[in-house]
Amino acid sequence: MHMSASTGKNDRRLRFVLKLSMALTTAYIAGTFLFGLRAHSLALISEAGHNVSDLLAILLSFLAVFLQSRPANDRKTFGYQRAGVLAAFVNALTLIVLSGWIAIAAIGRLHSPVPVQPNVMMIVATFGVLMNGAVAALLWRFSRDVNIRSVFLHMLGDTLSTAAVIAGGAGILFTGLTWIDPVLSLIIAGLILWSSAGIVRETFNILLEGTPKGLQVPEIRAAIQKIPGVLGVHDLHVWSLTTDSHALASHITIGDRPLAESRAILKEVNHALEHRFQIHHTTIQFEATDCSKAEGCCNPPRPVEEHACSHDHAH
Ligand SMILES: [Zn+2]
Ligand SMILES: [Zn+2]
Ligand SMILES: [Zn+2]
Ligand SMILES: [Zn+2]
């Protein structure tokens, strides 16, 4: 919607970084898979599988960035801004499933241990640390966007967990204790679960039109009510289009005033909302008297069949 030139430039840079990340991940998948086959290592083959899901996650984010930059039209009046939120939500859900799968496989290995080759484990994990670390570093500066943050956090988790695999490989090499491998897998599963649960919570709130993270509706209501000329605030809604784009709709009672005066009040209201709460998109309905009594207006809005109040105008 309110796209500036710098946003466009930022988007181009982000697209380049995402393409580079996809190339690095593809090379890593090929390497892990080939080494896994040669060493008959199930652990390495499943690491390759895990990275195929990472590649899908980056691809989804790439598509979301592409969609987000498409302008609004008459069929999508908000544009495609929520595409990234939706991509992050789906990513995080699949990762929760993946962490469950790793945990089950790890518990299975604790019951019936599988011999592992610590040397191959350590060599491949070293490449994993380099690759995941590079992708995480590339994405770090774009991580304000929830969609990119989901990929960034994931890559950070992968970097730490592959580093733990190196340590685990060394541990197995020196002690011969094979349970180190499944215990490491359980810790990795816990990390994945922790990072994705946070993203599911945040994106679910945006998809449910919840109050944006960090904003308090009573504070916003009080700030509007403090503006001279405002008699009352009702039917107040605050929601997010994306993580950093918030919108507000409200009815404000100002008494019977000339239009020029109401325009001055509107300017004050929008100024307060923009500077104190970073709400840039507002829809405000001014009323002479409180419509909840005079016109049968409802707060909160209900579906038509449950509409408890009557409108005294003809349709
Ligand atoms: Zn991963
Ligand atoms: Zn607008
Ligand atoms: Zn009203
Ligand atoms: Zn009504």
Please tell me about this protein's structure.
This protein has two domains: 5-207, Up-down Bundle (Alpha-lytic protease prodomain-like); 217-301, 2-Layer Sandwich (Alpha-Beta Plaits). It has a three-stranded mixed sheet, with helices on one face. The protein has nine helices and three strands; from the N terminus they run H-H-H-H-H-H-H-E-E-H-E-H. Residues 1-5 and 305-311 have low confidence and may be disordered. With 315 residues, the protein is mainly alpha-helical. Helices cover 64% and strands 9% of the residues. It starts with a helix and ends in a 21-residue tail after the last helix. The chain binds zinc ion (ZN) (4 copies). The site of one zinc ion has 7 residues, from strand 1 and helix 9.
Brief overview:
64% of the residues lie in helices and 9% in strands.
How many structural domains does the protein architecture include? Answer: 2
CATH architecture of the largest domain: Up-down Bundle
Work out the number of β strands.
3
The main β sheet shows up as: 3 strands, mixed
- Round the mean pLDDT to the nearest integer and report it: 81
**Strand order within the widest beta sheet:** 1-2-3
List the secondary-structure elements in sequence, H or E. HHHHHHHEEHEH
Secondary structure: helix percent: 55-70%
| Coarse morphology | elongated
Organism: Granulicella pectinivorans
Keywords: Ion transport, Membrane, Transmembrane, Transmembrane helix, Transport, Zinc, Zinc transport
Family: Belongs to the cation diffusion facilitator (CDF) transporter (TC 2.A.4) family. SLC30A subfamily.
Domain Cation efflux protein transmembrane: 19-208
